[in-house]
Amino acid sequence: MFRVETEERTQLVDVTERVAEAVPDDATGVCTVFVRHTTAGVVLQEAESGLVEDIEEFVADLAPSDGDYRHDRIDDNADAHLRATVLGESVSVPVENGELALGTWQSVLFVECDGPRTRQVDVVVTS
To answer: Could you tell me which of 10, 44, 104, 110 has the fewest CB atoms within 10 Å of its CB?
Structure first.
């Protein structure tokens, strides 16, 4: 488990290295990265800076912040919940001999939809 701090309402954070550090050296199996929040997500994608900005913009556009949402009567963040619903709360990555078996351009990206916040990310490896 580790924490991610964000500074923006919608923000991507490359957490690949932190996930890799949480994998035991002798592990082989599946690594699940899980976000314990309903207004954040995690995805596998390329971490190139231009694409990261494109994804942030895309995520923000998924549900406009000025929409007429019923949930906003409670805590004014329905847009973040809707965005996180589309993104999903977990990804699975194969692990081989203690290493994440990611594709050449794949990174594990935490996606904040309701920042700025401090979030918890769980990393579980099963064989």
So the answer is: 104
